[in-house]
């Protein structure tokens, strides 16, 4: 009887721990969420840069949150749209989700900025997506990862620009996942 009780407890513990685990679709932060806060990409500014970075989902599930090395650049928070795009033959395609972020980590602090998706956008393992950012005024810095991960960037420069320009660069630091429960 005691064995069955212990077995039941062990199974309950195993089940509860697997339910509470978060899903990580992409992560290029260093240990302890470190990133290079001294170099990165300007989002916004006078050139009105909108940028997006390609990633491949490492598992399947609903995207609920994004943690970024995204910091306010000139000492002030700047309303910024964070966008999740489907891939369209190697460039950002259909906009899957867009959220507005208004509170950022301070530049050079080493802290991260978190934002929350609706939890209704499903990502498929092995499929490419794009994480984008567009500052509505002012500028923010999307700082480089500290692990050396390179990847594809797409950007639009200027208010009237509507064609993505592509290049291969050091990726900014970000993680897309579900919220641990």
């Amino acid at each position: 009887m005691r064995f069955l009780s212990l077995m039941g407890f062990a199974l309950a513990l195993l089940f509860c721990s697997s339910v509470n685990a978060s899903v990580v679709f992409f992560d290029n932060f260093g240990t302890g969420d470190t990133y290079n806060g001294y170099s990165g990409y300007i989002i916004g500014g006078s050139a009105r840069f909108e940028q997006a970075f390609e990633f491949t989902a490492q598992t399947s599930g609903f995207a609920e949150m994004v943690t970024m090395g995204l910091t306010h650049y000139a000492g002030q928070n700047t309303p910024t749209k964070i966008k999740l795009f489907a891939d369209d033959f190697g460039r950002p395609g259909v906009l899957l989700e867009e959220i507005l972020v208004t509170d950022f980590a301070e530049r050079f602090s080493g802290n991260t900025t978190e934002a929350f998706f609706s939890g209704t956008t499903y990502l498929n393992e092995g499929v490419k997506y794009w994480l984008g950012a567009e500052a509505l005024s002012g500028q923010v810095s999307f700082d480089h990862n500290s692990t050396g991960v390179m990847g594809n960037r797409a950007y639009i420069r200027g208010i009237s620009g509507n064609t993505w320009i592509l290049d291969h660069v050091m990726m900014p630091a970000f993680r897309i996942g579900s919220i641990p429960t």
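Confidence is low (pLDDT under 50) at residues 1-20. The longest strand covers residues 113-123.
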